[in-house]
What we know:
The chain is mainly α. It is 80% helix and 0% strand. The protein is built from four helices and no strands. It has helices spanning 10-29, 35-48, 56-84, 86-113. It starts with 9 loop residues before the first helix and ends with a helix.
Amino acid sequence: MSNKVTAVPSYRLRAAVVCTAGFLVHLTLGTLYTFGNMSPYIVSYLRQHGTPDLTETSSTWIYALMLAGQGGSMWIGGFLEKKLGTRLTTLLGSWIMSAGVLLTYFSLISFWFT
């Protein structure tokens, strides 16, 4: 009998880490593209909590501004990618998007108490 321990090949672990990281990046940065599905719920929530005259067409402005913001800031991402590299730029973009979700939480709390 051999006491040899078979280690998990590092490429399998690396593949799992890369797939998990890719999933998390798309989950974070993909929120822009799921806004159409969330829009009716957001409008409904805001109607119930203080803005009864809000319409669904008002929410299209939010989506339009999000797309304009993404398009207008792409050159910054390209510049950062050249200076910092792909990994750090992706990490920074994910942090900024996650911070936006966190700030939305605080804005809803202040909206709730006003």
